[in-house]
Design goal:
By secondary structure, the protein is mainly alpha-helical. Helices cover 79% and strands 0% of the residues. Its main location: membrane. It is a multi-pass membrane protein.
Length: 285
């Protein structure tokens, strides 16, 4: 037992030494795997070191800001409804869907799906515990969901008042998002979490703001065009339907929200954080 522990400790020292040697490449050279991983672990640890109130407020802000994507989704649906087929409208939404994500990520607010893999890496690197990860995830999720629900109340009221979309638009989007079986939503959410974890990795790999905007737009547009389930935007979409339409029930909202959160967490933590970290570890053994 002691020999195994000693071997594991030695392996961790080797990993840390390799990460420390990963220095920033020249401005015109792409970052290496080790450089990106080191940056992600450092950024993740910085989030752990923040005060709980700061994390809660930042995640609340992200929940509010992501609502601007939903505002544009509803406005586009309301504008095009009756002019083109509904299926076409849902595909065209992928062009406005990324706006809220650009605001959140460039504005440094804490979004659960974008932070999932980032916050998992310090745990894999044995700098933080699983308990601290779950506690931090809980704070971020609560802030994101509360912010999203507040934004939903605002938009459900202001949209019809400004005549930019109707309650029918809200209902159509909510039904479109939540109508699938639980198993389908879970698999879709895992893919969405995978994409969002990859988004965090690619943003860390980029060196200028313009390239980051392009990456955010590209990944989130793919997510929207494919109709994959994002737990935080989906929260605004389905909760808005819940408070304005009889077609969305509390049980439907609860089932959708819990499954999409689990799926997004699995996608980001397993398919990005774990695989990227293990690829680095095996490369140095």
């Amino acid at each position: 037992m002691k020999a195994d522990q000693k071997e594991k400790a030695e392996d961790q020292k080797n990993i840390d030494k390799k990460l420390e040697k990963s220095v920033e490449s020249e401005s015109d050279s792409p970052k290496s795997h080790g450089e990106i991983l080191k940056q992600q672990i450092i950024e993740g640890q910085e989030t752990y070191d923040k005060q709980p109130v700061s994390i809660l407020l930042s995640s609340l802000t992200a929940g509010l800001e992501i609502g601007f994507s939903y505002l544009l989704l509803c406005t586009l649906y309301g504008f095009l409804f009756g002019k083109v087929e509904e299926e076409t409208i849902f595909k065209l939404m992928s062009f406005v869907y990324p706006i809220g994500f650009i605001m959140v990520i460039l504005g440094q607010s804490i979004l659960f799906t974008e932070q999932t893999s980032l916050l998992t890496l310090p745990v894999l690197n044995k700098k933080r515990t699983v308990r601290s990860l779950l506690k931090l995830w809980s704070l971020v999720i609560v802030g994101n969901l509360v912010g999203g629900c507040l934004m939903a109340f605002i938009l459900v009221w202001i949209g019809p008042k400004l005549e930019i979309f109707s309650l029918q638009s809200i209902e159509a989007i909510a039904v479109h998002v939540s109508q699938y079986p639980i198993g389908v939503i879970l698999a879709s959410s895992i893919l969405a979490g995978w994409l969002m974890g990859l988004l965090s990795w690619l943003v860390a790999a980029s060196k200028d703001t313009l390239s980051r905007i392009v990456i955010i737009f590209m990944i989130t547009a793919v997510l929207a065009f494919a109709g994959l389930h994002h737990s935080i935007v989906g929260n605004v979409e389905v909760f808005s339907g819940l408070i304005s339409s009889p077609k969305i029930t509390w049980s439907a909202y609860g089932a959708f929200q819990s499954v999409s959160l689990i799926g997004n967490a699995l996608g980001g933590a397993v398919f990005v954080a774990l695989l990227k970290y293990r690829a680095f570890v095996y490369d140095i053994k």
